[in-house]
Structures are given as C-alpha cells and as structure tokens.
Design brief:
- The complex is a heterotetramer, with 2 copies of chain A (138 residues) and 2 copies of chain B (80 residues).
- Chain A has 138 residues and is an alpha+beta fold.
- Chain A is built from 3 helices and 9 strands.
- In chain A, a hairpin with a 2-residue loop joins strand 3 and strand 4.
- In chain A, helix 2 runs antiparallel to helix 3.
- With 80 residues, chain B is α+β, with helices and mostly antiparallel strands.
- Chain B has one domain: Beta-grasp domain (Ubiquitin-like (UB roll)), CATH 3.10.20.
- Chain B is built from 2 helices and 5 strands, in the order βαβαβββ.
- The longest helix of chain B has 11 residues.
- Chain B starts with a strand and ends in a 6-residue tail after the last strand.
- The chains are: A alpha+beta (138), B alpha+beta (80).
- Chains A and C meet through helix 1, strand 2 and helix 3 of A and helix 1, strand 2 and helix 3 of C.
- Chains B, D: Pfam families: ThiS (PF02597).
C-alpha cells in the first residue's frame, strides 16, 4: 500500500504508524522530520513551506513506487506539510513496514534522501533579521 | 506561442508572480527557455541551479515545448 | 539523554517519540517491532517474552551508550516488553534523534541489530500444534 | 563452593528450574562449568550455543568463578 499526503494541517506520527500496520510485518521504521531551531549559527524563528502541489504529490508517489520496486517492503506512507511551521513542528513523516527490518530501514532512508532532492517543495527560513530560501544560492 | 509559466520559491520572488502566460518561439527547447529567462532576469544565474518541469514532470534540456504547456521553474528544492 | 525500559506493560510509540524531542534535532528515526503472524511457513498464535531483567536492562543501556559514542546523536530510547504478546503487538521500540538524519538512521539500526544479538531476552513461539524457543537450536 | 545458578529460556526447561544453588569446585573456569553442565544435561550440546554471564555481565571461557557468584546460563537470545 502506498499512501501520499500533502497538507497544510498538522501531521500525525500515530496516523502514519497505523497506516503501515500489517500482521505480516515485523519491522516498522518511521522517519519524523522536525523544524530545527538553528541553521549554521543563526537562530530560526519559523519556517514557511511552499509546494508545487500536484507535481509534489506525483513525485512523492514516484519515490514510494521506486522504493517498493527496490526494497522488499509491505507499506509506505509519505506525508508532507506546507505553510508556516514553528520550531519542533513536523514538516515530513515517512513510515515503512516490511517483513524483515533491513528493507524498511533502507527504504525509509532512500525515501527521505530522494524527497529532499526531487520533490518540488521549498522552505524559507525566517530569522530575527531577515529571511532566506534554503539552498537557493551556492 | 503561449505557455503557462509557473514560478515557485525564489523563482517567484525573481519574476514577481506565481503564474502567468508567457510568449516563446515555437518548439523552443528547455535549454533555450532557460537562456531566455536568465537574460531577462539575471538573478537566475546566481542560483545554485534551476530545473524546468513541463506538465508536472521534470524534463531535460533538449525537450521541446508545445503550445499551452504548463511550464514550471523549479529552483533548488528544500522540502523535508 | 538515554532512556531504557523493560516492562510487561504495553509499549507506546508516541511516548518514545516525545522522549527524544529536542529543538536541536532535525531527524527522528523510530523502529517499531511487531509480532508477525508467521515464521517460515507456520502460523504463530502468540509469543511469550522472558527476560533476565537486571542484565537485560544493563545490556540495553550499554547498547545505547555505545550508539552515543559511535554516532552523532542527541537522544536515544530503547523500550522492550516482556510477557505474552499477541500478533501485531509491539515487543520493542527504539527511537533516536539527531541534528542530521543519517546518524539517527545508523544508530537506530545499530541498536536493534545489537539488541537482537546481546540482550538476554528469549521468545517462545506458540503454534496450533506446539511451541518453540526461537533460535535455540541450529 | 556454592554458586547461584540462574537459567532462562530453553536452559530453564533443560534444568527444570529458574534459580538454584549449585556446587562447583573452587575457582572453576567458565569453560569447565559449561563442560560439567553439558555432561550432566546432554541437551545443552544440542543448542546453537550457550553463554555464561557472571553477576550480570557476559564472561569468556577463561574467567574463573568465585563463591556466591550469580551465574546465568544464557541460551541464544531472541529478543526484539
């Protein structure tokens, strides 16, 4: 099962964990990304995530499908949030279940690594003294 | 011909809009569109890179655009 | 922070996730083990986990300390349950937070791999027609 | 001398008890204790392996036991 969600509502780790449950699964690996309070030495006040919605959902689906092709996994959930997020809030959750745990670890890491390279979502960091689109400039 | 140009992230700030009709020559390649945009808006050259998606799929430099394509400027992504 | 628990009560992924939260963390990786409904071709009815309690807690603590030495992580939680567990129930949760996600993935996998090798806990599988101590015989 | 012998998992089934006083010669090594147990209970030889923990720490074959040590028989673990 593949479950993809792009939403401006709060993400729920419990919801993602429920979605991947399977009596045949022995391993469940969950990655929860949270907003850190600093980038290099600057203090971050909050972040704003913008997405090219329809394409972002397609790319998230492609990543999940690629993971199911490459690894022996049962279910995979990729949820990403958009909009303004405070420190500690969750922009992304990836949850994977498999019969044997190694595949779930590998697939989960593959998904978050690939998501950060290909999914058209952009994050702007707001500091006390300004703001910046992350990764835009060399 | 007319394409539907979308801009996100810093590209939206550079262009000053999110979505607009944009006139290009017939069957223009993505390489040429990128050149045209960089000439018109030199800020694009300062980015780490930018990609182009056509109808919500990434396309490479030799891909040729068609009338009414949904063409999105994709600056370096930073989701997750 | 290291948090170790060996208990005969139900384990809670949410509790473990709360324990590793940190404003400096960007990546949280959670491994949730569940009881599978089959081993090779046999149908499992339920499992019973027995632990050498004081030593199991010491070994779990050693694993967490070793993970903190080897990987650049912030917090680590290892909870293990004992007693009778039904299919789908959770015998083990490992949760790790880190500033950068790769360390959390590596540490989490290191912990579950090592736990299965060194922590004195034993599981008995109950089938329709008998029972067996897992891994006891070649 | 007397040691406190603990048995878990299948070792408990083989010995028929979880905890008992057990007499061994003075300063016996773990290697010799394992031999003695295997002679007395041949089922131990059928296991994949078994380790010995002394006072809740794994110890190797050349470790020598002392009076009143807590000595646990650790058959192949299968937690997680």
């Amino acid at each position: 099962m593949i479950n993809i969600k792009l939403t401006d509502q709060e993400l729920s780790p419990s919801e993602c964990e429920q979605l991947i449950l399977d009596d045949q699964a022995g391993g469940h690996v969950v990655f929860i990304g949270t907003v850190r309070n600093h980038t290099s030495s600057k203090t971050v006040k909050y972040l704003d995530f913008e997405a090219y919605g329809p394409m972002a959902e397609k790319e998230m689906h492609k990543i999940a499908a690629a993971a199911k092709d490459r690894y022996d996994i049962l279910h995979i959930v990729i949820h990403h949030r958009t909009g303004k997020l405070a420190i500690g809030e969750i922009p992304v959750i990836i949850a994977v279940s498999s019969a044997h745990r190694k595949a779930a670890f590998e697939a989960c890491e593959f998904c978050i690594d690939t998501l950060k390279e290909t999914v058209p979502i952009w994050k702007k960091e707001y500091f006390e003294d300004g703001e910046v689109w992350v990764a835009a400039h060399p | 011909m007319k394409i539907d140009l979308l801009a996100f992230g810093i590209a939206k700030d550079i262009l000053g809009y999110t979505q607009s009709s944009y006139m290009v020559e017939h069957s223009i390649s993505i390489a040429d569109l990128k050149k045209q945009l960089s000439n018109q808006f030199p800020s694009f050259e300062k980015l780490s890179k930018f990609d182009i998606a056509v109808n919500q799929e990434y396309q490479s430099d030799d891909f040729e655009l068609s009338e009414n394509d949904e063409v999105a400027i994709i600056p370096p992504v930073s989701g997750g």
